[in-house]
Structure formats: C-alpha cells, structure tokens
Amino acid sequence: MRMLLLGGTGDALAIARTLDMPHVYSLAGLARVPTDLKCAVHVGGFGGVAGLVTYLREENIDIVIDATHPYAAQMSRHAREACTIASTKLWAVRRPAWQQQKGDDWRDAADWHGIIEQIKAFERPLWTLGREPLTHLHEIPESQFWTIRCLDPQPGNARAKIIDARGPFDIDGERALFDAARIDIVISKNSGGRATEAKLAVARERGLPVVMLKRPALPAADREFDDAASLVAHLHSIL
C-alpha cells in the first residue's frame, strides 16, 4: 500500500513524521520543506485534476490523505475529483470548527468585503488570515494600523507591521502581542484545533470582537478523522 499525504499544516506534518518509504508527503511550493522525514517529499502542484490523476496512476497510489488546511477548498475538491476518476481511496482530516463560548463576540464575514465592513470602526486590527491581507496594504485607511501575522517574513509599510510566526501560540504570548500592538479587533479563519486558539481566549477575556471568515464547504472523503492523532492511530492499526 502506498499513500500520498497532501499537507502544509501542522496536522499533516505530524502524520508525515510517522511515515516512511514508499509513502509521499506533498507540499505546495510556498511551504517550508521539512528535513527530518523518512518518506518521500513532493514539492509543488500536480497540474490540476488531470495532473493529479496521472500522478496517482503512475505512482501507484492506493490512498490519498487530505490533511490540507480547512480553507484550502480547491485542493480538497481536486483531490476528491481525482480520486474518483482514478478509483483511489480518499481519507481526510476534517478538523472541527471552533465553537463560540460564553463571552465571545464573533462577527461573521463571508468574504474580504465583509471583513472590511466589519472592521471599519476599529483602529488596531490583528489579521491572522495568512498572506491574503498583504495584497491590500495599499488600501489601509489612515484611521487604522494593521498587525498581520503570517508564516514567512514580508515587508510591511508605514501603516502595517508584518509578524512572521508559526504556531502553536500560547496564551501568555498572545497577551503580550495584544498589549504591544494595542489590538482592538481580531480577524481569523475558523481553522479549529489548538495551535492558534489562544488568540480567541485573549479576545474573550478582553471583550474584543473577532471577525470570523466563513468556512468553505469541503467534499466528503471515504473516511474522515477529527484530528491527526486519530488518523495516525488508524494507520498504526493497519500498517
């Protein structure tokens, strides 16, 4: 049995570290390539659905594991379509979304325009959407200063500070960030999991609103797991 693991997340890396040859860990070109893996690593895309179908057939892949980010909907859709065409099993880590708790002030947004509308009245937003805000640095109003956290170093400007950092983040570190940047609103994806949840706890204890970008709908997999540990336990039982 040979598996292709679609990654780029902490969950995916945890799974990849349990695999050896001949399994393959796949990363988009923007992600850092880990150097401590025993399995093969594929860096870059496959060329859409048709390219992925060809790869699955030529590489004799029996199972695709979709452990991409919950917002990487296009990759998940491509994986589902390619696996159907190639008659390959598809497993997926489908991280449960965060749920509001007492004291939370969450404000839903469906897209970029919705986010901008939600934050108009605020001055010091913390962006935790990844790279997307970087393409809008020229649009920052004079009344705002943005703090943007993403995975890799990026240039900011007079109205934005870019922080390159990778989770997991703890609550004390998030409190320090909120204090230093004088954060008055948070913009987040509903990624689920514990690695980046501390920001929500800090917003809750300070009574700050969180603009939550709506999750995209993902296709069903042949087998779904709530977290990496559950999938790894299943792999151990069958390998």
CATH topology heading of the largest domain: Rossmann fold
Q: Could you give a short account of the major beta sheet?
A: 6 strands, parallel
Q: What is the count of structural domains?
A: 2
Q: What Rg do the Cα atoms give?
A: 19 Å
Shape, principal axes of CA atoms: elongated
Low-confidence stretches: none
- How far the N terminus sits from the C terminus, by CA atoms, comes to 9 Å
- Corresponding CATH superfamily of the largest domain: NAD(P)-binding Rossmann-like Domain
Percent range for β-strand residues = 15-25%
Helix content: 25-40%
Order of helices and strands: EHEEHEHEEHEEEHEHEEH
Number of strands: 12
CATH class of the largest domain: Alpha Beta
Adjacency order of strands in the biggest sheet: 3-2-1-4-5-12
The number of helices is 7
Q: What would you call the structural class?
A: alpha/beta
The overall pLDDT average reads 94
Notes on the protein architecture:
- This protein has 239 residues and is α/β, with parallel strands linked by helices.
- It has 2 domains: 3-96 and 216-238, NAD(P)-binding Rossmann-like Domain (Rossmann fold, 3-Layer(aba) Sandwich); 106-213, Rossmann fold (3-Layer(aba) Sandwich), CATH 3.40.50.
- It has 7 helices and 12 strands.
- It has helices at 10-16, 48-58, 73-86, 112-119, 171-181, 198-206, 228-238, and strands at residues 3-6, 24-27, 40-43, 63-66, 89-93, 106-109, 125-128, 146-150, 160-164, 185-189, 210-213, 223-225.
- β10, α6 (198-206) and β11 form a beta-alpha-beta unit.
- The termini are close together.
